[in-house]
Amino acid sequence: MILKQDFIIEGKHQKPILIDATHLQNKINLPIIIFCHGYKGFKDWGAWNLMANAFAKAGFCFIKFNFSHNGGTMEQPIDFPDLEAFGNNNYTKELDDLESVINWVSKNDTLKNISNFTNINLIVLQ
């Protein structure tokens, strides 16, 4: 059975980062994939949930997240209500968000029990 867990972490730029982890239940030592959506993207847009499920079935812990300044909010993560945040977005903020996510992944107790932290992979869209 595939399990999807949602998390919210604080970003470095006063905006939260919405994360989800998709993996097979009752499995351990799963390699990790961190997925970074592209510009004007959202972690739940299009086929990204199908992709998360496919990677989970293949034996990965698939982690996707919304960049803090992508224009979405916690209440509306796949809409575009925060135009000010989007207008202030830049490459440095996205790199800082990715660093926050990687640091969170390596310290998260839930993931610690199922994942292999020596095998972290990135998929980055631009």
TrEMBL record:
InterPro entries for this protein: AB_hydrolase_fold
- The identity of this protein, by name, is Alpha/beta hydrolase
Q: Which organism is it from?
A: Thalassobellus suaedae
